[in-house]
Write a structure and sequence with these properties.
The strands form four sheets. Strands 3-11-10-9-8-7-4-5-6 form a nine-stranded mixed β-sheet, with helices on both faces. The longest helix has about 30 residues, at about 225-255. It has helices at about 15-20, 40-50, 65-70, 80-85, 125-135, 155-165, 205-215, 225-255, 260-270, 295-305, 310-335, 365-375; strands spanning about 5, 5-10, 10-15, 35, 55-60, 95, 105-110, 145, 175-180, 195-200, 220-225, 345-350, 375-380, 385-390, 395, 410, 430, 445. It is of the alpha/beta class. Helix 2 links the parallel strand 4 and strand 5 (about 55-60).
């Protein structure tokens, strides 16, 4: 049994997902669960809680987002789309922009984005506003669970202290915990209801109440001794990934100089059954986890004059990766006597990862902007992203990229089921995904 803070903390196992669907656990508090923020994390969380037998109030500041959810104009895996069709409009699911509805909830789960700004400084505006709203409308007996990734101490600064200022003390009047989200958009191999959760409450009763709500939507819940331990857990998870992706990119560079295929090397290393986990190089990192979350830790420790040189170097390497793709494009074109300033360049795939239409922090946006600034005639094609804006300019996806011959095709994202046979007819293909081994003549970064 795990130990944290000097006390034994149990893991609460669940049966299979089929059993959870058939016999949903009885919630401790029969009042609705309110989800604050119905975005890429909040909406799947709401659907998982609905499926586990809870009544849900979905609160979002954007009426457009509420309308999109009602119309199913949202990016979800197929299972969640089925859940949305089942629950949207039912008596158990209320969608609203009215924060007054929070007072009716027995549990409030906060799921708002925590990005960084253009200077890589944490942007806490959405989180601060959401927490302030929750504190303002908190009622005695409520359980409040923060899931948004942030610096260590966020739960204390934005919830526990402001609640105490209202004479609402955790463990007595309200019950406060942190439970980091573990949702990977588009991932059908590790859906939310098959991924364990971590919970750290301010008191044992805070933890117990948070577990009672969350255990129906996860195979198990692992308890830690404080909100701070749970906050640091999330930072470790994504910093681990960031450092290893930076390492994979660096090995790609080393292999290129030594005339080796990095994918072959990684696949060989991955045959070792212990002490190794494969990470793949690519054009950069997108989403609001890996390119953002470690900066919360760097920012917090920098304020305390504590250096984290390994993490800092890895994040710098990740941030500069898209520019390296553009430099490689310039080199390849120059080798063929084509200046980048007049080249016709197509970027294949612009979402930040396969099988989603999510553009958050996508390296493709920077690649498109850098190529445009260099004077190239730039287009893109992506069946999941019909239009986008780069440097204030609207662009539409090329519906038939195979009908043209491009000076260079930069492969950024490949979705399942895409026909890429036409790449064989292109004179120059820069495979930034390192996955198109079968494309004859393709070059990597």
């Amino acid at each position: 049994m795990p130990i944290a803070g000097g006390r034994a903390l149990p893991v609460w196992p669940q049966s299979s997902s089929e059993d959870r669907t058939a016999t949903a656990p009885e919630p401790v508090d029969r009042r609705p669960v309110a989800i604050v923020g119905m975005g890429y994390v909040g909406l799947p969380t709401a659907l998982a809680l609905l499926a586990s037998g809870n009544e849900v109030i979905g609160l979002d500041a954007s009426q457009q987002r509420i309308d999109d959810i009602r119309a199913s104009r949202v990016d979800l895996v197929s299972d969640d789309h089925e859940r949305l069709r089942k629950f949207a409009g039912s008596d158990t699911c209320t969608l609203t922009t009215d924060p007054e509805r929070l007072a009716a909830a027995g549990t409030v789960v906060i799921c708002v984005p925590t990005p960084v700004d253009e200077h890589l400084v944490p942007d806490l505006s959405a989180l601060s506003a959401a927490c302030a709203t929750v504190v303002e409308h908190a009622v005695p007996g409520q359980t409040i669970v923060l899931t948004s990734t942030s610096y260590v101490g966020t739960t204390r600064d934005l919830l526990l202290r402001p609640l105490a200022d209202r004479d609402m003390h955790a463990g007595r009047d309200v019950f406060v915990a942190f439970s980091p989200e573990r949702i990977d958009p588009g991932n059908t191999v590790h859906p939310q209801n098959a991924t364990p959760r971590v919970v750290g409450g301010e008191t044992e009763e805070c933890t117990r109440r948070a577990v009672a709500v969350l255990k129906g939507s996860a195979p198990e819940v692992h308890q830690v001794g404080s909100p701070e331990a749970a906050e640091m857990c999330k930072l470790l998870e994504n910093t681990f990934r960031a450092v290893n992706i930076a390492l994979a990119n660096e090995f790609a560079t080393a292999c290129g100089h030594l005339g080796l295929e990095v994918t072959e090397v990684i696949n060989a290393a991955a045959t070792k059954p212990y002490g190794f986990m494969p990470f793949r190089p690519g054009p950069g990192v997108g989403g609001h986890c890996i390119p953002c979350d470690p900066h919360y830790l760097l920012w917090q420790l920098r304020r305390q004059r504590v250096a984290l040189p390994l993490i800092d170097t890895a994040m710098t390497a990740i941030a500069t990766r898209p520019r390296k793709v553009v430099r490689r494009a310039r080199e390849l074109l120059a080798d063929r006597g084509v200046p980048l300033s007049r080249a016709r360049v197509l970027v294949l795939g612009v979402s930040y990862k396969p099988d989603v239409d999510d553009l958050r922090e996508s390296p493709a946006l920077e690649i498109l902007a850098e190529l445009t600034q260099a004077g190239a005639v730039v287009s893109y094609t992506d069946p999941r992203v019909t239009e986008l804006a780069v440097a204030g300019k609207r662009m539409e996806s090329e519906a038939k990229p195979q009908a043209q011959v491009w000076d260079l095709v930069v492969v950024h994202t490949v979705h399942r089921g895409q026909d890429l046979d036409w790449l064989e007819e292109q004179p120059l293909v820069l495979d930034a995904t390192y996955r198109l081994d079968a494309v004859k003549g393709r070059t990597v970064v």
